[in-house]
Design goal:
The chain is α/β, with parallel strands linked by helices. It contains nine helices and five strands, in the order ααααβαβααβααββ.
């Protein structure tokens, strides 16, 4: 639907510039491997540019009586699928928000109110929890940690247990499929399973509480036994 704008004399210069922006973003998506959460977040920024190209294509129609029909077809193309899928997407997003608040939100608020300002957390899937905690966070996935990010391997498969333990986090939060993880298979992330298998981790940290997001997603919180920033009764 955007092709006519690329060839119409009055729009083709601007249209090709817009298409270059779209192509750059798509190339980045392909080069990076895409975002792993879903929802096409890396590609969504291309939509406004594509919409402009499609609208310019409607304007490029030389047969004026066809323009209203073309505009209606474009409106159906650009809005129809979103209109139909919106209620389902909205319900899923609201349910996710409630689950996120029950686990990550509750954890962040508890850390904020029950620990010293200099406490260090080590937590993955790190967003709402560290944000509400107002504490420093060691991202073991490497999204916000230069050392782990530069390790060889794919995202979420990079592991450096000595580095994590060497930073001496006051709290380590492990994602598990059960409320009280006791074995590596309960921990879907490789770095978390590696920590659970490490004797030093068990010697220095104790399990203190769980926050449940859903039936198969729990945040297991482990406190460093000698931590001064996190009281023993946390």
């Amino acid at each position: 639907a955007a092709v006519p704008a690329l060839v119409w004399r009055r729009s083709r210069t601007a249209a090709w510039l817009l298409m270059a922006v779209v192509a750059t973003r798509v190339a980045f998506h392909a080069w990076s491997g895409g975002e792993w959460v879903g929802r096409h977040r890396f590609l969504l920024p291309t939509l406004p540019f594509l919409y402009l190209l499609v609208i310019a294509s409607v304007a490029a129609l030389r047969v004026r009586p066809l323009r209203p029909y073309a505009a209606a077809a474009v409106a159906l193309l650009l809005l129809g699928l979103g209109w139909v899928s919106y209620p389902v997407r909205e319900a899923a997003a609201l349910a996710y928000g409630r689950e996120l608040n029950a686990a990550h939100g509750a954890l962040g608020r508890a850390v904020n109110s029950g620990t010293a300002p200099d406490a260090l957390i080590a937590m993955d899937d790190a967003g709402l929890g560290p944000y509400l905690s107002r504490r420093r966070n060691l991202d073991m996935l490497g999204l916000n940690d230069r050392h782990i990010a530069r390790l060889p391997g794919r995202f979420s498969y990079k592991v450096d247990v000595p580095y994590v333990l060497g930073r001496s986090p006051d709290l380590i939060v492990l994602i598990s499929s059960v409320a009280e993880p006791t074995r590596g298979e309960h921990l879907p992330l490789p770095a978390h399973a590696a920590l659970a298998a490490d004797s030093t981790f068990h010697a220095r940290y104790e399990f203190v509480r769980t926050y449940t997001m859903r039936m198969n997603y729990h945040l297991g919180v482990f406190r460093r036994r000698d931590s001064r920033a996190v009281p023993a009764g946390f």
